From TrEMBL:
Classification via Pfam families: TPR_SYO1
Organism this protein belongs to: Atlantisia rogersi (Inaccessible Island rail)
Family: Belongs to the nuclear import and ribosome assembly adapter family.
Name recorded for this polypeptide: HEAT3 protein
This protein's encoding gene: Heatr3
UniProt domain SYO1-like TPR repeats: residue ranges: 413-497
Segments of this protein annotated with the region Disordered: 1-35
Biased composition (Basic residues): 1-10
Gene Ontology biological-process annotations: protein import into nucleus; ribosomal large subunit biogenesis
GO MF annotation terms: unfolded protein binding
Length: 498
């Protein structure tokens, strides 16, 4: 299988406090020592265990505290809680382990697999899959919050599975052996009502299908039909665009299971999805979504002001009439209440992030389409940036080593789909500088500032992708000599840009 040791696109960890508070706390001391929190995981009260898991989850987002938890065997402490009788504990335990795997790095993921995290994780995934159709909920909490615990637990568990499978070959082997694909695909059926869960599944599928021939036989007609139904989903939100892009990448990974007669239509469908993703202007999307966020917050603030005024009038009435004082709603907080630890709702920011991730993913897969399977991603990146790349490629062609496709040797299906969907043109557009107005918005908004890095990542991947296309196609693919001249001028501006 040969899993790469470089993570491509990491989703944000399960964040009880939200991204802003997480950054503020990175340098601060832990409020409770690891030993005390881990001891609370054994408490007979489910609420105390839930609060302990949420607190551990928050702390594990700070890399400097991870060793303290690892020394106290946090994996074996949290692992059994994945099958706790309390659904809330299961979710927060899975979230804590997800954070550990996302923030701890490859060595931590390896250690988690060594300590047998896969056994309770696989059991949890299969149980959630069985309960998904029954829509098993926690009656007390769901009446209050309309929360579907089964789907939320599955989302955390799938992200944990994705992290460890992307880093560890043994985890992928267990995925194959235990027949996890069936359970994972079962979650995908919820894509029309729970796109976040579907995106988590799609990320996991793309990871486990990469260089995993042992899994190909499991993709029967029913499995492929599920993936096809997602690709045909007409929803136009950025999250749905990301979902379709990830599924297209998965189908490319399992292309050997596609009948030869259907290969052309499959490639065209994949590149059509990539084309739709790349056609969207990320800068304009940032401007539009930021405006939507401002309007939403403004309306929310006005509504809150009206509600507070109403509460004051009601309370004054109570004091005058009954000589009693009523505590305003929301002011009573139990010691183990975790309501303030749940992630904040920033759907506009999530939409932009989904778009940029979709574009990064599409560009990466296009590079893979142009690159021989015998050349690893790391080798391709090194080759693309090497001063000796031209000499290396010339030698490769002369010696017939097959490391790279020679010019004009793209398959007819891929070449036709490239041109029909204007892929080279749209990649060329993505090499342009990010929108200056959008950059200014991100610079002056702390929660949006991480988008700058993603904008630059899309531009860099577009340049690498453009390089790969020039290697396997001719100038006409980009629009002829005039387009090539414009490209040369644009690239020179990039080189001399500050």
């Amino acid at each position: 299988m040969g899993k790469s040791r470089a993570r491509r696109f990491r989703t944000a960890p399960f964040s009880p406090t939200g991204p802003e508070q997480r950054r503020e706390e990175e340098s601060g001391p832990a409020e409770e020592p690891a030993a005390e929190l881990l001891e609370k995981l054994q408490h007979p009260s489910a609420e105390v265990r839930e609060y302990a898991c949420a607190s551990i989850s928050k702390l594990l987002q700070q890399k400097h505290v991870i060793p303290a938890f690892l020394q106290r065997d946090v994996v074996r402490c949290l692992g059994p809680l994945l099958m706790d009788h309390s659904l809330a504990v299961r979710e927060t335990a899975a979230g804590a382990l997800r954070n550990l795997s996302a923030c701890g790095g490859f060595e931590v993921c390896d250690d988690m697999v060594t300590k047998d995290i896969m056994t309770p994780l696989v059991a949890l995934l299969k149980e959630c899959s069985t309960g998904l159709d029954a829509n098993q909920l926690s009656p007390k909490k769901c009446r209050e919050t309309n929360k579907n615990y089964i789907e939320d637990i599955a989302n955390e568990a799938i992200n944990l599975l994705w992290n460890v499978c992307e880093c560890n070959n043994t985890a992928v082997s267990i995925f194959n052996k235990e027949g996890c694909l069936e359970s994972v695909l079962h979650y995908m059926k919820k894509f029309s009502t729970n796109v976040d869960l579907a995106i988590s599944v799609a990320n996991c599928l793309q990871a486990v299908t990469e260089d995993n021939p042992d899994l190909l036989s499991s993709f029967n007609a029913s499995a492929q039909q599920i993936l096809e139904s997602v690709m045909l989903c007409p929803d136009s939100t950025m999250k749905h665009i990301l979902l379709r892009t990830l599924i297209a990448g998965t189908i490319w990974n399992i292309k050997d299971t596609i009948p030869p007669g259907s290969l052309g239509s499959m490639v065209n469908a994949i590149l059509k999805i990539f084309s739709e993703s790349l056609a969207i202007d990320a800068g304009e999307t940032i401007i539009r979504m930021n405006e939507a966020e401002r309007n939403r917050l403004k309306l929310a603030a006005e509504a809150e002001t009206e509600e507070n005024m109403s509460d004051v009038m009601d309370n004054n009435g109570l004091i005058e009439d009954d000589d009693m004082e009523e505590i305003p709603k929301g002011k009573v907080r139990r010691e183990d209440d975790i309501s303030d630890l749940l992630p904040s709702d920033k759907w506009e920011l999530k939409e932009v992030t989904a778009l940029l991730t979709a574009q990064q993913t599409a560009l990466e897969i296009i590079v893979n389409m142009c690159c021989s399977e015998d050349l690893s991603d790391d080798e391709w990146e090194e080759l693309s940036s090497s001063d000796e790349s031209d000499l290396f490629m010339e030698n490769s062609y002369n010696e017939g080593s097959g490391l790279l496709m020679s010019p004009l040797c793209l398959s007819d299906e891929v070449n036709s789909a490239f041109l029909n969907n204007l892929i080279p043109k749209k990649i060329l557009e993505k090499t342009a500088f990010p929108n200056s107005v959008a950059l200014d918005i991100c610079m002056h908004n702390p929660s949006w500032k991480p988008l700058i890095k993603k904008l630059n990542a899309v531009q860099c991947r577009a340049l690498t992708c453009l390089h790969s296309i020039l290697l396997v196609s001719d100038v006409d693919c980009l629009g002829g000599p005039s387009a090539l001249q414009s490209l040369a001028q644009h690239l020179s501006e990039l080189v001399f840009a500050k």
